[in-house]
UniProtKB/TrEMBL annotation:
One of its GO terms (molecular function) is calcium:proton antiporter activity. It is a multi-pass membrane protein. Residues 24-177, 205-344 form the Sodium/calcium exchanger membrane region domain. It comes from Pseudomonas fluorescens. One of its GO terms (cellular component) is endomembrane system. Gene3D superfamilies: NCX, central ion-binding region. Signal peptide: none annotated. This is Ca(2+)/H(+) antiporter. Belongs to the Ca(2+):cation antiporter (CaCA) (TC 2.A.19) family.
Amino acid sequence: MLYWMLVFVPIPILLKFIAPEQDLLIFLAASLAIVPLAGWLGRATEQLAERSGEGVGGLLNATFGNATELIIAISALRAGLHDVVKASLIGSIVGNILLVLGAAMLAGGLRHKEQQFNALAARSQATLLTMATIALVLAAAYNAVVAPRAPEGLQRLSLYIAVVLLLVYGLFLLYSLVTHKNLFAGDPKVESDGQQSPLWSKSKALLVLAVATLLIAWVSEILVAAIEPSAHQLGLSNLFVGVFIVAILGNAAEHSSAISAAMKNRMDLSLSIAIGSSVQVALFVAPVLVLASYAIGSAPMDLAFSGGLVLSVLLAVLITGQVAGDGRSDWLKGVQLLAVYLILGLAYFFTPDVAA
């Protein structure tokens, strides 16, 4: 399906030149164009990950899967759409651990009655998400209580929190990939049963990766420019568009990779992609965007998210910790995660625009 969907890629580019006033049409075309590009990016990353273990493979999938999210966010940041950036960050975190992981558990559970995974690795990543959520809660509390009296402090607090989160993420990579990598190894039997030989050469995978990333960057610029007018025409809030539509588009690569891994009974890789992507967004992408906002855009971005967005992350992290804590998964757990995501979607759909 990824092959024929590539026909959508040139459409938003052409529309931008021949019909720039058709914002809704451009937005829809750009949305369709990003899906196959993200899918090819995910496929190329999966090919590279096949040459690594579950831990490194999951990191590669998460990193390049989040490339779409990061590119879209930088485009929005450059356009001064801080609310859209914040909403898409939260949407990506929530979407990865509810939608992507839920879909993977459902798909894997329908093919395999019960699947096993490394509970220690899952709990470690869930703990990191809890830590990141604490940082968001404190930033939101500062914004509500202290910032009205000392507004200049919020930006400094956000900057320092961003540095701390980046440092912790770097230390986690050191812990999981170097000093304690044995604790994050998957089940060797499951890995060998499910793993297939790479179909692509390394050079082909790198070439596809580079081309997909460049095209995503181009289409993302077009997509971001059409977000606000399209949301207005569709009667949707920027918050809903950011948390769900933009985030789902940004997570397209993780979707395909995590579900594919789960159906091959490689749940360690699937969880590493899904939860690992959320960890990376919270501890790497968001802090990087805060730092980048000092160089691009009209004003620096802070980490003071609205209470509703912070609550969404808190609830998502809570149920993910419950579902992923025992080292086993089945289709019902996938349904539970998807149900929470659907409920959150309904809540945001009926929520008018508020500052993120």
